[in-house]
Amino acid sequence: MSDLLWFIVVGIVAGFLAGKMMKGKGFGLIINLLVGVAGALIGGWLFGTLGLHFGGGIVGTLITAFLGSVILLFIISLIKKS
After folding, report:
1. Of 2, 46, 64, 70, whose CB neighbour count within 10 A is largest?
2. CB under 8 Å, gap of 24 or more: what pairs does 55-58 form?
3. Inter-axis angle of helices 57-81 and 2-21, to 10 degrees?
4. Above 80 in pLDDT, residue 13?
5. Diameter of the chain by CA atoms?
């Protein structure tokens, strides 16, 4: 249970940071936070599949979640434009 809560917190922080970085492509605070949690899942899967690791601990987890969130926000913004 503790790991799940930690994962959600990291995803929320990553979504917030990704929303700030992707100015004009974000979807508001709540959606960006939810995208952050989903992005953390995607980042973990994608970078794990590619064999990329950004270190251990909280910093590596946050970097992975942040990059996954940026990728997901970018894809959503492409779909939204269509």
Report:
1. 64
2. 58/10
3. 50
4. yes
5. 40
